[in-house]
Amino acid sequence: MSPPAATFTEPSASFNSLSLKKDLQVRAASNGSEAKTLEAMANNWESNFSFAPIRESQVSRAMTRRYFADLDTYAESDIVIVGAGSCGLSTAYMLGKQRPDLKIAIIEASVSPGGGAWLGGQLFSAMVMRKPADAFLRDLGVPYEDEGAFVVVKHAALFTSTLLSKVLSFPNIKLFNATAVEDLITRPAPGAPGSVRIAGVVTNWTLVSMHHDDQSCMDPNTINAPLVISTTGHDGPFGAFCVKRLVSMQQIEKLGGMRGLDMNTAEDAIVKRTREVVPGLIVGGMELSEVDGANRMGPTFGAMALSGVKAAEEALRVIDLRKEENEY
Ligand SMILES: Cc1cc2nc3c(=O)[nH]c(=O)nc-3n(C[C@H](O)[C@H](O)[C@H](O)COP(=O)(O)OP(=O)(O)OC[C@H]3O[C@@H](n4cnc5c(N)ncnc54)[C@H](O)[C@@H]3O)c2cc1C
Question: PTM 2,3-didehydroalanine (Cys): at which residues (predicted)?
């Protein structure tokens, strides 16, 4: 029988999601319920199997308590990554590995993170990465076949799911999916009249963002952060978001527009030019091709991974300075 609502005691909610997680782990370990093995369940489904009783509100509270604690914790982040495609996730992986002290929020407009990296070109399974991006695969522990100048992962989803699982395992990284960045928070740039530095993001549920034209009163939410890393992919219904906003805010004159496909030129350019485009905003991955007028590369993904590595390197180079500027 389920516990009656009135007598069911919720664990005390903490407003810090990092300490809440620890608190819940301790409670789970000490509640005395014995963990069954799969072997014990095998062939015993009728006689020796049923799920532990639950009240529906426990499920709701288990989700909402954590989510709202996360919203509270990450309202002030050290770094916000916009877009959880191959570049954004690679950036998060590198930062998570090197800096467990930084609070990192990832905002992804889609319900499913991973961007375009669930398949190779034309919806084929295999993912091609040109060397030396194989170094990133070895670091992640993703197996591949060596074809000389390039390597092949047997299914792009193996790369993306491994990367995603590692990123989500870092205690200091929170992914908010189904959430779109719909504007940037700005502050006057120190010593540069007319220029701004980026000081965070304005967010909304993606479904709400898509209905601003036919619904009213749907104000957004905000996350303050001294550094934003934008990896929203090339131009499209959602892509190239932050750099298009830089143009409309007159912080860059115009977009270069992504050029035609040239794998050899494109991949080097994206990695080498991954940089802080305006103070507080690093741009990486295919979003950068829209700023610089770089070539597209088609279905070869090494540049996305290494652009993420470079974006993390750039972030760690400027984070202390941006934090100092972010006093207000
Ligand atoms: C859904 C999809 C399918 C694709 N399929 C193929 C394919 O089959 N073959 C091929 O060669 N290329 C494909 N591409 C293009 C190719 O995957 C990209 O060139 C490459 O993945 C770029 O990587 P990226 O990390 O820069 O950006 P992407 O992989 O495009 O990831 C960008 C992420 O940012 C998110 N995003 C965008 N705007 C916002 C915002 N305002 N707020 C929050 N999040 C935002 C997007 O939802 C996406 O998850 C696809 C791209 C997409 C998005």
Answer: 217
